[in-house]
Specification:
By secondary structure, this protein is an alpha/beta fold. It folds into 2 domains: 63 residues, no CATH class; 84 residues, no CATH class. The protein is 28% helix and 20% strand. It contains 5 helices and 7 strands; from the N terminus they run αββαβαβαβαββ. The strands form 2 sheets. Strands 1-5-6-7 form a 4-stranded mixed sheet. A 3-stranded parallel sheet has the order 2-3-4, sandwiched between helices. α2 links the parallel β2 and β3. The radius of gyration is 24 Å and the shape is elongated.
């Protein structure tokens, strides 16, 4: 028996297609960019927040550790905090922190991703054919995908969802009609 092998070059059609794969997890902040402010250590007897003691703490606190961080304010114990407490801490962080979130670490990641996407230079996606990667490990993926789409759709030529080998078309810019 004689076997003949055809030595054709293997061509990566996906690579040659001009498709740009976007993994929204790339917009997640680094752990070092996240910082928490927990009210629990400031509670009197682990129950309530005394305004004078709290204000004294805030006046003496070193706020520089929150510089350019995505800060989330929360209480790690079950306590009822007055709304003004969150406002006072927020007022101290304005102009220092990148973002301020009232809530959990997941909420802070969501806020940080929103900040990153809203700050995005969309020129890098101009006339691009984008594939938004599915199955990213990000908080609230549908909201992040929608926000990203709102930013890039006006400039790109098409957007798909999934993997390069299997995509779902989301948007395709209509071809402009040439008038003679």
């Amino acid at each position: 028996m004689l076997f003949l092998y055809c030595m054709e070059e293997i061509v990566n059609r996906v690579q040659n297609s001009g498709l740009v794969a976007v993994d929204l997890a790339d917009y997640l902040p680094e752990q070092s960019d996240l910082s928490e402010f927990d009210f629990a250590p400031r509670l009197w007897n682990g129950l309530i927040l005394k305004e004078k003691d709290f204000r004294d703490f805030l006046a003496a606190h070193d706020w520089s550790s929150y510089t350019n961080k995505h800060v989330y304010l929360h209480c790690s114990v079950d306590a009822i905090l007055p709304s003004w407490a969150f406002m006072i801490v927020s007022s101290k962080l304005i102009g220092i922190a990148k973002t301020i979130t009232i809530g959990s670490l997941q909420d802070a990641k969501q806020t940080a991703m929103t900040y990153s996407i809203q700050s995005l230079n969309t020129e890098e996606f101009k006339d691009g054919k984008l594939i938004i990667k599915g199955c990213s490990d990000i908080p609230n993926p549908e909201a992040v995908m929608s926000l990203f789409l709102q930013r890039v759709q006006p400039v790109c030529s098409s957007v798909m969802y999934g993997e390069p080998c299997s995509t779902v078309p989301i948007f395709k810019r209509p071809k402009s009609k040439t008038v003679y």
